């Protein structure tokens, strides 16, 4: 079983991935944030560091793809390779912060990698509106994320919504997390696991469901 959690910055993926891993006894794979050599610089000057950061994330995510393939265990993954390309890199290109030739080079590499990527058995999209994202980013208080603008989050959210519509290579479960606080309210976490259990039980019937 390979489950992946997808969603915008501050949606609550990392917390939920850890909680689900504990609950179901799955291994968990996090994103490369600590020790990421580009992330802080990227938030200071996106245009300068866009290509470098995207290559770094693409490589680290591809490493995870290989780990998942070779592990033979049930794994939950915090964010996927699809988001790097279809959301983050695309947004940088569309907003003029990644040049066409860099984007083309990046996409060529991504397409090559994609031929070796097996989609997760279940993708869980945590849908959150801007106020929720902003609150969570401020709450965790990473200094380099304080420069994230609402425009940036809004563009990413638009691309996430498009991604949810276009995602056809596997099953997608959409959970609206605007009113949920599973980190602090056990009932909310029970709600999420119930939805996942139901979805896993009815996998043959539905490819996309929404709660
Ligand atoms: N491909 C990418 N391009 C640009 N920034 C990225 C990319 N992938 C991840 N990031 C950034 O790296 C950091 C990852 O932090 P983290 O793992 O805590 O996840 P997050 O996106 O904030 O999610 P959550 O709060 O839902 O756990 C965020 O600032 C995120 O936007």
From TrEMBL:
Keyword Transport: no
Keywords recorded for this protein, A-Z: ATP-binding, Kinase, Nucleotide-binding, Transferase
Listed SUPFAM superfamilies: P-loop containing nucleoside triphosphate hydrolases
Record's GO cellular component terms: cytoplasm
Positions annotated to bind substrate: 31, 43, 54, 79, 84, 145
Annotated catalytic residues: 78 (proton acceptor)
GO molecular function: ATP binding; deoxynucleoside kinase activity
Domain Deoxynucleoside kinase: 4-198
Name of the molecule in the record: Deoxynucleoside kinase
Record: residues binding ATP: 7-15
InterPro entries referenced in this protein's UniProt entry, alphabetically: DCK/DGK, Deoxyribonucleoside_kinase, DNK_dom, P-loop_NTPase
Entry's family note: Belongs to the DCK/DGK family.
Pfam families recorded: dNK
CDD domains, alphabetized: dNK
